[in-house]
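Students often ask why inverse folding is considered easier than folding. One informal answer: many sequences map to the same fold, so there is more than one right answer. In these notes we will look at a single instance of the problem. The structure comes first.
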């Protein structure tokens, strides 16, 4: 009998946990890696065990199914769970050799932690489910303390039971604004208003096209109704065609200026008004975390390009591409706002262009937690060589067909979201020459315009060196997509001619995916050859969640069809 395949899953959000579950069911030995202390990602984030008294009294959507899957995965004898562990690099095989890259790990994960150690991991298949983070368009004053991303505010509310402020405005674009506002209300914030930048006509056209297709998203409708009811109970107004165009304050945000917008997001004269706040939460969609896929050599695809092997009607999005997985919640997030240009290209079994590397969740497209779970299950099953081409019970084939159908429905839903909540082309009209665009290096809009206007300075690498935009601690993760978009608007497609063998510049292309100290880099790594080896056995937060006897799935156990909750 051959040894079980070794599968590493990076990211333990909805997509990654589902991939691990499916790979274990197919007979693989799985290493599940995440920088957080507990699985779940942003969507299933909750307070730690030590905060038991502060846990919310209600359960999240899909919580029971998630808790069951979590117990099954972490208690499985063939699963190695590595919490608080970051993947800082992927080392590709030597020329002439195929297969997934070597995984370089660092644990414990916090960049400011002491006593971190390096490890390497060699596997037969690698599943990347690293998710996405908020994208925020700049506006005057957005660098003030008290202005934060909607995702950060939700993480504090769900994971720490901490409110970002007492008087809060939530603004941006996309359905993600609703669960964020509900989370803030749950921890005691007074949400003054929720502002959707797109006009009512734009959102109605996007949602109203082919309305019968929404029947497959009944779970999302139920969650939408719950969030809307929470806003109604607290009398929080939801306004379309209006957004925050400026934040003001002495040392921190004290007030915001909101304005009515046209369909292209240009400001209507005479509609500005001032609102006193102590916090403002902003999100204009999501940006996929592409550092590891690019390090592995995965090909990318533009959001509207057809994807080989896609199922569904001809108008469904071709690029698939989903962290923290599930950051968009069950509603996902707009594909266009989330795309700095591309997602990871995958086939019908979630394979990337690199042999042995699979991708699932928001790095292949922003479609929400249910679609991410379905993608993860397909990726985990294929990574464990349990794909339908192998002989298997009919029940497994039916389950996989149902998962693919759920995934493809999620892709169609992502396209609907992109139409209903696009980024307006006129948003740079909010900016002034002194508006900060790169908050790390305090590079302003005027400096970028001057650099991009000169042909010699418009190339991405030259502009970065001249303006320092993207050279700060975040390494362009926040400002990179915005700077790239502004460069295209002002200078057109850059004329950079990289040296032979040097990849084109991009906001996600980094040789080191996570910060690492020189001392840590100099220390020799420890290979994780023992499948039961764990860098920090004392940090297993799921220990208290495990049943008294370890769960061992039945021999014919197969990945279940995910619910839409």
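Output (designed amino acids):
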């Amino acid at each position: 009998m051959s040894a079980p395949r070794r599968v590493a899953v990076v990211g333990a959000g909805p997509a990654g946990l589902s991939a691990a579950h499916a790979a274990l069911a197919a007979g693989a030995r799985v290493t599940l890696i995440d920088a957080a202390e507990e699985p779940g990602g942003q969507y299933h984030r909750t307070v730690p065990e030590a905060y038991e008294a502060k846990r919310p009294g209600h359960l999240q959507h899909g919580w029971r199914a998630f808790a069951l899957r979590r117990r099954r995965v972490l208690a499985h004898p063939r699963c190695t769970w590595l919490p608080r562990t970051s993947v800082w690099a992927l080392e590709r095989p030597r020329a002439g050799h195929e297969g997934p890259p070597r995984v370089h790990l660092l644990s414990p994960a916090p960049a400011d932690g002491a006593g971190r150690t390096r490890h390497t991991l060699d596997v037969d298949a690698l599943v990347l489910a690293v998710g996405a983070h908020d994208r925020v368009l700049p506006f005057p004053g957005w660098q003030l303390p008290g202005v934060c991303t909607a995702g950060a505010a939700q993480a504090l509310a769900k994971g720490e039971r901490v409110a970002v402020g007492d008087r809060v405005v939530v603004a941006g674009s996309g359905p993600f604004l609703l669960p964020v506002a509900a989370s803030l209300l749950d921890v005691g914030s007074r949400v003054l208003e929720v502002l959707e930048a797109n006009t009512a006509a734009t959102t109605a056209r996007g949602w109203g096209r082919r309305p019968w297709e929404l029947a497959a998203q009944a779970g999302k409708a139920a969650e939408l109704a719950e969030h809307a009811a929470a806003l109604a109970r607290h009398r929080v107004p939801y306004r379309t065609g209006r957004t925050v165009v400026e934040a003001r304050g002495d040392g921190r945000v004290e007030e915001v200026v909101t304005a009515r917008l046209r369909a292209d997001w240009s400001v209507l004269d005479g509609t500005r008004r001032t609102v006193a706040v102590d916090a403002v939460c902003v999100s204009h969609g999501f940006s996929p975390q592409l550092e590891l896929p690019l390090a592995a050599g995965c090909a990318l695809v533009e959001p509207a390009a057809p994807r080989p092997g896609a199922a569904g009607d001809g108008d469904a999005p071709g690029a698939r591409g989903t962290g923290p997985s599930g950051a968009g919640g069950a509603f996902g997030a707009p594909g266009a706002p989330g795309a700095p240009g591309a997602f990871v290209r995958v086939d019908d079994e979630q394979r990337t262009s690199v042999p042995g590397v699979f991708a699932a969740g928001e790095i292949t497209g922003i479609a929400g937690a249910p679609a991410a779970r379905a993608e993860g299950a397909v990726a985990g099953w294929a990574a464990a060589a349990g794909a339908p081409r192998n002989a298997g019970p009919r029940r497994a084939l039916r389950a996989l067909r149902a998962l693919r159908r759920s995934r493809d429905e999620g892709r169609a839903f992502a396209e609907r979201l992109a139409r209903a909540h696009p980024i307006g082309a006129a948003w740079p009209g909010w900016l002034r020459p002194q508006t900060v665009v790169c908050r790390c290096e305090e590079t302003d809009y005027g400096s970028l315009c001057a650099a991009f206007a000169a042909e010699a300075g418009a190339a991405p690498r030259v502009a970065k060196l001249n303006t320092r935009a993207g050279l700060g601690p975040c390494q362009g993760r926040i400002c990179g997509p915005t700077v790239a978009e502004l460069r295209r608007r002002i200078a057109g497609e850059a004329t950079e001619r990289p040296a032979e063998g040097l990849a084109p510049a991009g906001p996600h292309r980094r040789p080191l995916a996570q910060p690492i100290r020189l001392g840590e880099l100099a220390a020799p790594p420890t290979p994780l050859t023992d499948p039961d080896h764990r860098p920090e056995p004392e940090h297993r937060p799921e220990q208290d969640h495990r049943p008294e006897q370890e769960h061992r799935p039945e021999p014919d156990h197969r990945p279940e069809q995910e619910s839409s909750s």
